[in-house]
Amino acid sequence: MKFDSPAGDNLFDRARIVGKSTPRIDGARKVTGTAPYAYERHDVAAGQAYGWIVGSAIAKGRIVSMDLAEARAAPGVIAIVAATEHEPVGSSDFNFAPLFGGREVSHYHQAIACVVAETFEQARAAAGLIRTRYESADGAFDLKAAKPGAPIAMERGEPARSSVGDFDGAFAGSAVTVDETYTTPDEAHAMMEPHATIAAWDGDALTVWTSNQMVEWGRQALASILRMDADKIRVDSPFIGGGFGGKLFVRADAVMAALAAKAAKRPVKLALQRPLMFNNTTHRHATIQRVRIGADRDGRIAAMGHECWSGNITGEGPEDGTLQTPKLYAGAGRMTACYIAQLDLPEGNAMRAPGETPGHMALEVAMDELAEKLGIDPVELRIANDVKDRIPGGEQTKISDRHLTRCLREGAERFGWSKRSARPASRRNGRYLTGMGVAAGYRAAPARTSAARVGIDDAGRISVATDMTDIGTGSYTIIAQTAAECMGVPLDDVTVHLGDSRFPVSAGSGGQWGAASATAGVYAACVNLREAIAQKLGYDAARAEFADGRISGGGRSSALREAGAMSVDGEMSFGKFKQEYDIGTYAGHFVEVDVDVFTGEIRIRRMLAVCDAGRILNPLSARSQVIGGMVMAAGAALTEHLVVDKRFGFFANHDLAQYEVPVHADIPPQEVVFLDTLDPIISPLKAKGVGELGICGVGAAIANAAYNATGVRVRDYPLTLDKYLDRLPAV
Amino acid sequence: MRSFTYERAASPAAAAASVAARPGAKFIAGGTNLLDLMKLEIETPVHLVDVQDIGLDAVEDTEEGGLRIGTLVSNTALSAHPRVRRDYAVLTRAIQAGASGQLRNKATTGGNLLQRTRCSYFYDTNMPCNKRDPGSGCAGINGHSRQLGVIGTSDACIATYPGDMAVAMRVLDARVETMRPDGQARSIPLGEFHRLWGDTPHVETVLQPGEIITHVVLPPPPPGQHFYEKVRDRASYAFALVSVAAVIAPDGTGRVAFGGVAPRPWRVAAADAALPQGAGAVIAAAFADARPTEDNRFKIKLAERTLAGVLSQVRS
Ligand SMILES: Cc1cc2nc3c(=O)[nH]c(=O)nc-3n(C[C@H](O)[C@H](O)[C@H](O)COP(=O)(O)OP(=O)(O)OC[C@H]3O[C@@H](n4cnc5c(N)ncnc54)[C@H](O)[C@@H]3O)c2cc1C
Ligand code: SF4
After folding, report:
1. Nearest CA, atom 6, ligand 1
2. What is the pTM assigned to this prediction?
């Protein structure tokens, strides 16, 4: 099925199940420990041995030798796969630094060996006996130092820059200007479940039970890395303990498990050890961003310039902080540019709202700075410059459905924004300075081809199978809701199977496209099943009603189960017409913070997000997505920081004790409001994703609140107390 | 983790004798620190002597009006003890500011005193670290040192003693009671218990091989208001950037110790004496010989402001 014109009135506009707050259908399995996560799948293959990954001790250079004798002789050891004895694995379209590199080391903690033993403890103990000698090479690890010569980044074969009108002229001619530089640090996904895989070979066929957001990408990447036929690979990933982009691609766990299982001639299970994860896997790369905004005295923006520098290993892409800027605000003269420096740190790649998360943390603070210079309320400044109906320049000039102004207005109203004092450092509450901040949020709403299989059994129960994943987001539930709605059966009569590469290929989970795409694919399959059932029972599918487990039309009615067991595939693809539109999701984020006047500790007291993302398929799980994004943004704003050791070339604080993600005590009551909107351009369900919208803008709202509280503007994230201390009032 | 042998001792004397008899043996109590370090091969004991059956799990009143705390008293139990809460509030607050509920249930009094530093490079066995691997160098000094020490450090090591409980015990003038392998008991003022790093940062306390902690003794409670203020980036479940333990009398005199800044809870007599002059004078006295790095210079200012916050709450 092709979605090639805007959605008209359809069954979802009369929905009884889609759009209703629905507890996760997999919730009971999760809380009873019966949802099978990769490392716990003891039943899928007999005789599982344990693997332990050894990471490189240097960031760049060569392995001179590895002495494996003692480890091989250690109790319980079955096999060792080592870089000095194994040819380098192949490359893939999904990673540049090899996941198992041979003798060349391209980043710290890159996998250089895997020890397989009868028990986990034996594998770990033996790994400690491997003696590796290295020849270190110099590397580039300092983004600031590499910035001056950094070339423009390439995105889809094009230079990553844009220009509309005359930015320089407009900026020079503006009465009020802001020209500031902001920095954001490298960050880790730090999801709860580490990357984990069980691998088993059956002849030349490989199965990996793993934790991966994009099953088909994973299958293709493994085929190319292991130099084998993709049809011989099965990837199964039904439950995922968080990914945030860190599991978009197969990583060393899957590759090493496969190689180790081959060497051991047994199924092997392993998980990336937590201290390895920060340097072994991908991360969000640090940025340096310069934002220039020029406006007239009434607050009309005439010039908007945003440049972003990040660093990565050769070949890999940038963290493009400029993405949201052309989409948010009007202005005749505009420019964006994204530069990339070559660094020898671990590979940077997508993390929740890649580009936009740090991008908002610069742009939306610059807007706050502009509002202050103009003496205009920051909510009003944003509304006055909201792009509203047409995005200047570029191909996508039309806007599908956008209510940013409403998000900001409604948010201001609900949050009590009018109580904010425009004068910084003027509200005191005991030992705390109190402040409020606002930011707008924009995140694109992509949709991708997605397929599913929908079946009915003799009892009239519906089952859905697709390789779509549920990374904690609630995919199981919205897919069941969609199928129940389409087939006219109660939610309890639908079962959902996800994450297996034997199922039809879906869009997978990433870039907040999962919900919109996968439900559209399920809808396409349901349309086909409705047709098949109608045909079998002699109804006109186009006119038949599907409700209460029955099909009716032409004055008669039959139970669906009378059609007998059958199953059909369906796929939704998206037509060209969408390319004329900018399809986005929008938010107004409001935050109140207290800053301890003595210590400079920033504590968030209230958070509100008002979101516009089309139809909300399941308000309960959508809210969880948004509050999760807000928590992650709190970490990005206040504590999260992979510290680069520029001498040794690695992230030094590589465990969860030192890389500080927020804890419960950091997070205050959070409120989320969804506007009641529909986007007919996105899909037949008129629903867009929210998983990344929740993080876009929140960090800046926190920073703006901290400024409003203290009068101290910190432009280098995270906003730790040491950056405030010298500038707080004397005590 | 290396393989090791394991035994449970029945008495303090037996435990001490067992550890003394086996080079490379260690005591294990709650295991919340030692096991983590063993998993990473930062500690590689060949033999563990588990002390959980040796008794010493009670808090008793002393004749002088103080408390004698058995080494196995858990952090949870100690912080909840009625007399501690009433008379030694600084200690309850310090313990509850540390770790998490689950950890405090397992963590013991003696183990807490001996918890090791949280320096990033100490935790990464690929890195030079004089404390973990004597003579290998110190990656911390010119490295990621935001969390590390500003005073009492050395050219060999700038790490801190990271804990909270001991900082409170330090202002309470606690003493550590031990038993040596030969059965001899001794009592060590807590202020002399942790060594400054000097050239031997791997030697962290004055305990001798096989010497076991049996008790911590608190003298009668000092008069005054009790404070424990712990400053950190996130609101909970993090080690202190700086902490301040203080007991302040209504006339402004009192005692103060700082955590997160030095190889031991940092208390200086001249700083105590300066309390009536305010935070600036205290810090000048306590941190006169500070040698911070660029990354952690802020700790001195932070200590001053945190103390100022404490003093602002004193009821005269
Ligand atoms: C995630 C995490 C967060 C933490 N956060 C904090 C915090 O915020 N603040 C804080 O203060 N602490 C914190 N801690 C540290 C915690 O307080 C210590 O791990 C705990 O107190 C150690 O006690 P234990 O009984 O488990 O010691 P063990 O791990 O059993 O032993 C520690 C050391 O003491 C020795 N030992 C134990 N008993 C004796 C004895 N009787 N005589 C001689 N030697 C002995 C052992 O040989 C070992 O070397 C944290 C720990 C973790 C894991
Ligand atoms: S500061 Fe101390 S613990 Fe840290 S690396 Fe140096 S010697 Fe090791």
Report:
1. B99
2. 0.98
